[in-house]
Specification:
single chain, Aspartate Aminotransferase, domain 1, 7-stranded mixed β-sheet, 4-stranded antiparallel β-sheet, 15 strands, 16% strand, globular
């Protein structure tokens, strides 16, 4: 019914991902190469027909579409007065950092983690504190002794959580989220939980919303949601902030308005409503395609590149590839692959923690492009090993 093999040409479209040379294949920036679901395209086309593109506002229908989605598919209920519109998860994080913490405060990250979090911290005069995830037997876990030490510092006021976790693809279970909430409540630390990848989980896997795990989580938590990853709407710039604590809600609402990131563009409200109200079938088909792509890539790497190991992440469309048997400097490897084969991957060092051993590959593309990317990876790694 949905043709995810259809090749979508994005050259010369001012695409951040596809503004590359003709021989290059970008598998780095985390957006998908698929058209969004037909009902979203239809909703946008209907807006275009109006012809006058004036100011818009987030409607009650927009709020209800989000409430119903999380109730029906993630077993978590909240009210319309708990939701604020924002132009994106990162603008929301930056606004929260500015309003909920002070210059010189410590903000904790569980690393390796999405690199733009770092910018939201250091660009606003706060101190990044890493609690590096434990890595053993191709699996990541939280070092709770280290985390508690970092949270207990008197200058620590915030933890930015990624749930599910980018780049490792891990879905934090209820027990982990409960422990995080309990520790942060104990030490008076606010949790910003980025849940933008929550609808991109493998079959028989599901995520737990942070705010759903306990009263502690609801008292200290700020949950950041969007349709942008699951429905490929990042360029429309729309997200939601969900907060159950009234005082925190008021502070964040003021912050988002102060930084002028609380007003939607003309298209995004109807696009998000359409995605959440009518896009479920398309999303299930998408996740099935992505899981097959993931399994194909893992099998290819296991059979052809035994020196590489792929983390068994159950969420996101990103592969986190362990290259430590080849190099401890994946910045050099990433640049080599780009120059020698045209394959563009994300260098792992930017994600902090033990990321310097890793590369990140985006497999949310047509199978023919994935096959091309994996062949380039194989050829590039072999050339890299011969050079050394």
């Amino acid at each position: 019914m949905y043709n995810f093999d259809e090749v979508v040409t994005r050259y010369n479209t001012a695409s951040s991902k596809w503004d590359v040379k003709n021989n290059e294949l970008p598998m780095s920036i985390a957006d998908m190469d698929f058209k969004t679901c037909p009902v979203v395209i239809e909703a946008i086309e209907n807006r275009i027909k109006i012809g006058a593109f004036g100011y818009s506002y987030p409607t009650e229908e927009w709020k209800e579409s989000i409430i119903n989605w999380w109730k029906n598919y993630h077993n978590f209920t909240f009210d319309s007065q708990n939701i604020i519109f924002s132009t994106g998860v990162i603008p929301s994080i930056s606004a929260c950092v500015n309003r909920l913490t002070n210059i010189g405060d410590n903000i904790v990250l569980l690393t390796p983690v999405y690199n733009i979090f770092v910018n939201s911290i250091v660009n606003h005069g706060r101190h990044l504190v890493e609690s590096e995830l434990l890595y053993k037997d191709n699996e990541y876990s939280i070092d709770y002794l280290d985390l508690e030490e970092k949270l207990s510092h008197p200058l620590t006021t915030m933890l930015i959580l990624c749930n599910p976790h980018n780049p490792i693809g891990k879905i934090w279970d209820k027990d982990d989220l409960y422990k995080i909430a309990k520790l942060c409540k104990q030490y008076g630390v606010i949790v910003l939980s980025d849940e933008i990848h929550c609808d991109l989980c493998d079959a028989n896997s599901s995520y737990t919303p942070f705010l759903s795990v306990s009263r502690d989580a609801q008292e200290i938590g700020v949950m950041l949601l969007s349709a942008s990853k699951a429905f490929n709407l990042a360029g429309l710039q729309g997200s939601a902030v969900v907060i159950l604590n009234e005082l925190t809600f008021n502070k964040v609402q003021r912050a988002l308005n102060s930084y002028e990131v609380a007003e939607p563009n003309f298209f995004v409200i109807d696009a998000m409503i359409s995605a959440f109200n009518n896009g479920r079938e398309w999303l299930l088909n998408l996740n099935d395609y992505l899981e097959k792509n993931k399994n194909y890539a893992k099998t290819f790497i296991r059979n052809n590149l035994p020196n590489l190991k792929v983390i068994d992440g159950k969420a996101t469309y990103l592969l986190w590839i362990d290259c430590r048997e080849i190099t401890s400097n994946t910045d050099e490897l990433q640049e080599f692959l780009k120059n020698e084969t045209g394959l563009i991957l994300s260098n792992g060092s930017s994600y902090k923690g033990n990321g310097h051993y890793f590369l990140r590959m985006n497999i949310a593309t047509q199978r023919i492009r994935l096959e091309d990317g994996l062949k380039r990876l194989e050829n590039g790694i072999r050339r890299f090993l011969k050079r050394k």
